[in-house]
Amino acid sequence: MSYFTETLERLVTARGQSRSAKSVEVFGWLILLEGSLVLLFPHFVARILNLPPLVEQAANYFRLVGLLVSGLGMIYIASGRLNAAGFVFASLLDRPLVPFAMLILWYLEIIPAPLALLFSIQDFGSFLWTLKTSRAESPKLN
Q: How would DSSP label each residue in 33-98?
């Protein structure tokens, strides 16, 4: 069996997936869904987030953000399904920084408070879930 075929099979079946990798995968599905909604329905998402009405250029930039977030979601999904321990660890370094970044963006009036709060809760909550499962899986030090 070739490397590509074996990896594709692992991606489809998630064979040997740890609980922490599953938490990364679930987070990936969540941001893939969010990014897809922004990509396909930017005006609708802007209304839900209580953002000002989007002019054509703003809607296209918003779509671009949706595309990038969707791509990130796919990376989280694939890494989780493939049980990529290095990616799980890297996500534990990245996701707790999101609330601080959102605070700065809100303070500079770049994004509205509800959006900053939503992203902060989502990222930090998923970080806590991955951290908890990761700690439960690691061998206890004596």
A: HHHHHHHH-HHHHHHHTTPPPPPHHHHHHHHHHHHHHHHHHHHHHHHHHTT-HHHHHHHHHHGGGH
Most distant CA atoms of the chain, gap in Å: 60
Taking alpha carbons only, the member of 9, 11, 5 closest to residue 79 is 11
Query: Which domain range does residue 108 map to?
Result: 17-137
Buried b (16+ CB within 10 A) or exposed e, 22-33: bbbbebbeebbe
5 located within any domain: no
Q: Give the pLDDT confidence of 93-134 residue by residue, as tens digits.
A: 999 999 999 999 999 998 888 889 989 999 999 999 999 999
Report yes or no: 16 and 71 within 8 Å, Cβ to Cβ. no
Its pTM surpasses 0.85 = yes
- Tokens 């396909």, residue? 40
